[in-house]
């Protein structure tokens, strides 16, 4: 879906912080989240993503900073007066109420005609594909159905923004993947803003228009999913997104587009600058994703970078093989290789000499 960024953002966070005693759970974060965007807050436990979500919802008041919804400052506005709704990881359904009654529960607090409630409940259940289950009780539902009821209960209130706090965390892997697709399709159908909290990198990339990667209460990078994955800006983001292969070296020359770097392992390569600045003699680090590397037993092909390495381990995984290698400077690297060649049962013994190769355009310079 093409986002209209000409309108005021659905959510604006300005220098927002939240402290619990001496701990800064959220530390001076500023973000714009566009209308109709599927936006994910991604990070490990304790990084501040749920606290930030609760600040948007109104359940946590910022220690400093402001929160705006559709251009209106709601920093001091209580949750029930904000045009948002929150879906929790644990469904929090009332066990003594039917599906329909659970979905309708919040409507009694809205100034809407009671005669309209049944229609709105029916529409919400249709959206999440639960028509015909309105008279069942939560204990009669599967995990995926319970999650849909929780979504319907939020959607029936017609929020301008839907906040989701790891809502798929309690589901098994197969159901979780199915619900990822359903959630994205639902968001596209409704066209409202979704803010999704997760610690799962694949889940965030599957559904999100943009991702904010959080670490220790701050946003390390906020970008399109593909940019966060392919062009991480910091070593933390690169490592968190599964890159893990960091090369070190010194800049020996550069132009407007690329730097030439010599490695302590004895090879020389070029690294795209992508707008970053550098100087001759700078010590730098760059990364190449595991799937962009390849193992060869001869010299690198023309146009490729090549580095002598030694096999530490070969791990056959069916669809792919993972190689662990180490270069002459002691740096360790991981290589993912699809098993597209005919199987011959060969295993490369530890200690075998190889050449680690990559296209220089796949290298990403990492900020200190």
Instruction: Write down the Rg.
Output: 25 Å
The strand count comes to 20
Spatial order of strands in the largest sheet: 6-7-8-3-9-10
Major beta-sheet overview: 6 strands, mixed
> SS-based structural class?
alpha+beta
CATH architecture of the largest domain: 3-Layer(aba) Sandwich
In the CATH hierarchy, what is the class of the largest domain? Alpha Beta
Q: Kindly, what is the distance between the CA atoms of the first and last residues, rounded to a whole number of angstroms?
A: 35 Å
Shape, principal axes of CA atoms? elongated
Strand residue percentage? 25-35%
The total number of structural domains is 2
What is the CATH T-level topology of the largest domain? Rossmann fold
Walk me through what this model shows.
The protein is an alpha+beta fold and 368 residues long. It has 2 domains: 11-234, P-loop containing nucleotide triphosphate hydrolases (Rossmann fold, 3-Layer(aba) Sandwich); 246-366, Beta Barrel (OB fold (Dihydrolipoamide Acetyltransferase, E2P)), CATH 2.40.50. It contains 8 helices and 20 strands. The chain has helices spanning 49-57, 99-104, 117-127, 143-155, 173-190, 201-207, 225-230, 235-240; strands spanning 11-20, 23-33, 38-42, 64-69, 72-73, 84-87, 161-165, 193-198, 210-215, 218-224, 246-254, 258-262, 268-272, 283-287, 294-296, 305-316, 320-327, 332-338, 353-358, 364-366. The longest helix is centred in the middle third of the chain and has 18 residues, at 173-190. The radius of gyration is 25 Å and the shape is elongated. The model has no long low-confidence stretch (mean pLDDT 89).
